[in-house]
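Example record for the data management plan.
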Amino acid sequence: MPTPRHDRLRLACADAGLEIDLARGVLTDLWFSHAGRVIRPLHRAHWVGQAVPEGLAPVEAGLEGEFLSAPFGRDDLEPGGPIHGPAANTPWRVLSVRETGTAAEVVLELLAPVRGARIFKTLQLVAGVPFLQQAHRIEGGSGSLTLAHHPMIRFAGRGWLSFSPKRAALSGLHVEPGRHRLVPGGRSEDLGALPGVAGPVSLRAYPQGDWAACGNHAEPIHMPYANRNGRELGPEEPPGHEDFLTLVEAAGNGLGWTAALREAEDDLVLVLKDPAELPVTMLWLSNGGRDAAPWDGRHRGVLGIEDGITAGDEGNRAAAGANRVAAGGARSCLELVTGRVHVVRHLLGAVPRPAGWTAVDGVRVAGERLVLTGAGGEVSVGYAGPF
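Corresponding structural encoding:
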């Protein structure tokens, strides 16, 4: 059985591995090997391991990888706790570990209750399958609970995004003043024409395309970048932007997915979910729009792909009542009851980018293979998922 070192547990099978920080439940590393090439899809912020301002939650002070946010964001039902809740900021204990050449699995339990519920995390890797399988089991509790997975990736260069069908895209209500590309509170059924402050914005290409004209000047930037950081922006460094978007899955979808194709990394990051469990996909588009330390305007080209059951950025109180997600016919929170069990499953994987692909047109399960369609052809990869 692998022994945790400094609150870190490493797990591996023949061609995949991970590391998890047990003090926070944060997946700090994930890798897949393809014909001798190793792909590490997860992002680590530039300030990790350095001194940061006081008052940051552990998940922000060491912003990296992937974690479960429960409750999602800032909790306005039981205020005072860290952003993204106990699940991303407090210890998990190891219940069991199984590791062979062909498969690996660890089961963890969150020590702190969330809304009175116990939460268990299972992580699984299978040789020949380029996905991390996760399952979270929420037992008992009372009241309403929002939650979301929070994997983060970074684009060193150009990138392209594709999605399973969505019924609507809802832009965030809470924005960085003067540093957002999307109209706050906007709605669109066309992911290629989101309401932008300077005209329609396409979600198909990030961080280039419409997003490259970083920032907007429809309202004043309250604290100029140069004043915060002591240097002027060069012509190659336009003011950045920070945007948040909630995609509501189309009715009847049996498989929800997000595909991110990265040119510089030459890979394809794929996230899978069951829309009945996680009805929304929230996108955190962080491209240099936060100037305060430790962000310092340097957190660029980062995308959070946050599959969850929430009301987007409207808050936990709104998620339990009237909100934009629920108005569209989707669930926005779990109802916790003593004796009731909720299970939420999620897959995160990465493969080499098929030659010439800048979009994924479709994803389907075919037995023990996952078939991706794009650029006039198909590719298939190993699959052992639950969907």
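Summary line stored alongside the record: The chain has four helices and 25 strands.
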